[in-house]
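Weekly puzzle thread! Below is a chain. First person to post its structure in token form gets bragging rights.
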Amino acid sequence: MPFEVLDLGLIGFRAAQTRQKEIFAAVKGGRLFSALILCQHHPVISLSRRASSANILLSQAELAVRGIEICAAERGGDVTYHGPGQIMAYPVFNLNYAKKDIHYFLRKLEDVVINLLADFDIQAGRYAGLTGVWVGKQKISSVGIAIRNWITFQGLALNVKSDDLDNFRFIRPCGMDIEVTCMEQVKGTKISAAKVKENLITQFKNIFN
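Winning reply:
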């Protein structure tokens, strides 16, 4: 599946969602075949369509003091945190020209992350019945998508930087009592976000082309 890569850099969550809707409209209208949007977000807690606000452990006022927004997201899953230490990948893919299978697509997104982490000598995998990617019992990547007219949007978040993990303390990630990790924490060394993005593009090409 050919796709255009758009790197939005560090961008607010709402602005990225607006851009994603514009790209979705272009794909739906046939002006663009498919696209992969990459970005990083300013600190934000996003709630899925079915998320419980009880999984946010601080008040909105307390979060605001820490510079963390709360935003709604059109995706599956529950509550999660996004920040500049993560790489976000939003594939706006037209599955009318591929396999129309939501679960298959989710597993392929997990494969993208698992293969990328292997390239950084990090052994990762899945837990049966749970969406996302794990290193041991710690979650390193969240996956949550939406599909309309068999065109995907939303996507995955990969934790890269160790200095952006503390904000996960203010939520129950994905509505569960789990630990979260990142690439730098696992490796015990600094990791270039730019190199992660390059590898991410390569993995998407390998798996979806």
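Puzzle host: Confirmed. Bonus trivia for everyone else. The helical segments are 13-28, 60-65, 102-119, 183-187, 193-208.
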